[in-house]
Amino acid sequence: MPNNKNSAGIILLLVGVVILLGKLGVFSFLGAVFWPLLVLIPGLLIHVLYFGRLVPAVALVPGGMLIVYALLFIVCNGFGWHNLKYLWPLFIFGVAAGLYEYYLFGSSRPQVVFRAALALAAASALFLVLVLMWSWGIYAIAAACIVAGGWMMLGKRSRW
Known about the structure:
mainly alpha
């Protein structure tokens, strides 16, 4: 009978610890910090299944997308979700990465998939540059004006 008493004591102890940790906010903190793993793990699992020869190469398209999106979510989770207004072109890049993996590891290597991946990656890069120039471009203009003005004031003066 002491065995049942010990088992019940361990269960009650664990229940109490779980309740206490829940009330202290440990689980909500872990959920808030580590939820992108719920996107990353399926992406990694798809890759493991492909390289284990259990799924076809076309499964790498959503696998690559999930990994890129999970990394984007991890960055936004760590540095703030306001950065998504600059990083939204990476959603397009996720599709490009998935298509490129399909092209790279697929057996038929269709050129249309490679071209689509290249076009989407280029569009993503272009949008990212445009977004950064739109939001940070005024700072680049201000810095250029400061440098040009300083050079004009302090640089060698030529005689006319």
